[in-house]
Amino acid sequence: MDSKMQALLDSIPDSPTRSRLEPYRELIRALRQKRKSFAEIAQILHLNYNVRIDPSNIHRFVKVRSKKPDVELLAPQPPNMPSSPTIRNQSPGGNAAPKKRFHYDPEQGLTLSDQDLNLKPSRD
Amino acid sequence: MLNDNSNRHNLRKRVVFTTGGKGGVGKTGVTLGIADWYNSRQVPFLPLDLDIENKALGSLRHYFPEAQKVNIHTDAGLDIFLTILAEGQTDVVLADMGGGAGHITHQWFQFIEEDFKQLGIAFTAVGVVTPDPASVESVLTWASNLEDHIQYLIVENSNTSNPDFTYWHNSKQAEAFRNTFNPTVIPMEFRLPELERIARQYGVTLRAIGTKSAPVASQLQIAHIIRAQRYNQRFAAQLNLAESLLLPSHLTQTA
């Protein structure tokens, strides 16, 4: 970059990029951990801080930041999901993921019996 | 979970959507049949066309010009969808999901699920299966991702005069799905392709032909009119069996 370009660049101020929700980031994170919905968070912000914001904007704020390392902002604490004996749990690590009741592996495909496939047994 | 009966009395809205994935299995045809059912019961519903890939005569908007088109392949589109659900005035939303809708929709759905519950919104996934095993795989993939977060209505679409649903009826995976979620399964009979073509060409539903409310009906043979009436009536009778999956609880007659 030549000096003229650099001078031009230096003369242009940064655009504000911070969301007006940024000051409430920790609060939103804590509320999501308390399993509050976006609509409820919007209401809390309005009542307590006079911040009027659409729930979908809070959703977007949370989602954008969830792409960065602080993933815990993303989701409320998962509810305790009841498990049933069917199918297998797909979590290879066996840690935080809730147990799945049903799993289908597209790589494996559908499995029919030989009878259904109209295959005759081998004579060997 | 939405499949918990104790929560159902709080559900004031219902979103009925066809599961995306395999194209050409008759998703839009089934959606139109459900739309006819709502109209026959005078249940107001909001049609949403989420099938951005289907821009031709087969799209929901071709039949319902007022249907809003939403691209749910993007976060912004998904947020529009959320806003429509949260703030819309109608208690029933009928959405035709695109063939390509998949992973991003699953992620978003799980992400937002708690809010749907808070808003009293229940979801019914309408899976359409045909003799094509890919149609079965598509339904199972959705179920694998969304599990109990939604309820399931499966339509066996006889897209030939002598359909063979072996993969849906007899595969181990489909059996596991049925045993796990106990979906309501209804048939949709084979329909005369010529009649389907006319309906598609003029952007009218079978009910509109059968009741002669569509102008094109005046140009059709009486045999086509009668067939449209019968197809419509018989599919409606099947949908009656799935009423609780198609309406919010306060609108069901059998509640």
Mean pLDDT of chain A equals 70
SSE order of chain B: EHEHEHEHEHEHHEHHHH
Largest sheet of chain A: none
Strand count, sense and barrel status of the largest sheet of chain B are: 7 strands, parallel
Strand content of chain A: under 5%
How many H/I helical runs of chain A?
4
Largest interface: A-B, 32 and 36 residues
Tell me how many strands of chain B there are. Answer: 7
Proportion in helices of chain B? 40-55%
Order of helices and strands of chain A: HHHH
Shape of chain B: globular
Termini separation of chain B comes to: 20 Å
Q: Could you name the CATH topology of chain B?
A: Rossmann fold
**Strand content bin of chain B:** 15-25%
Task: Provide a descriptive summary of the structure in words.
- By secondary structure, chain A is an all-alpha fold.
- Chain A is 34% helix and 0% strand.
- Chain A has four helices and no strands.
- Chain B is an alpha/beta fold and 255 residues long.
- Chain B has one domain (5-191): P-loop containing nucleotide triphosphate hydrolases (Rossmann fold, 3-Layer(aba) Sandwich).
- Chain B is built from eleven helices and seven strands.
- Chain B has helices at residues 27-40, 60-63, 75-87, 103-119, 133-146, 166-170, 172-181, 193-202, 206-210, 222-241, 243-246; strands at 13-18, 46-50, 68-69, 92-97, 121-129, 151-157, 184-188.
- The longest helix of chain B has 20 residues, at 222-241.
- Chain B starts with 12 loop residues before the first strand and ends in a 9-residue tail after the last helix.
- Classes of the chains: A mainly alpha (124), B alpha/beta (255).
- The A-B interface holds A 35, 37-40, 54-56, 59-60, 63, 74-76, 79, 81-82, 84, 86-87, 100-104, 106, 109-113, 116 and B 1, 75-76, 79-80, 82-83, 86, 111-112, 114-115, 117-119, 133, 136-137, 140-141, 143-144, 147-148, 166-167, 170-174, 176-177, 179-181.
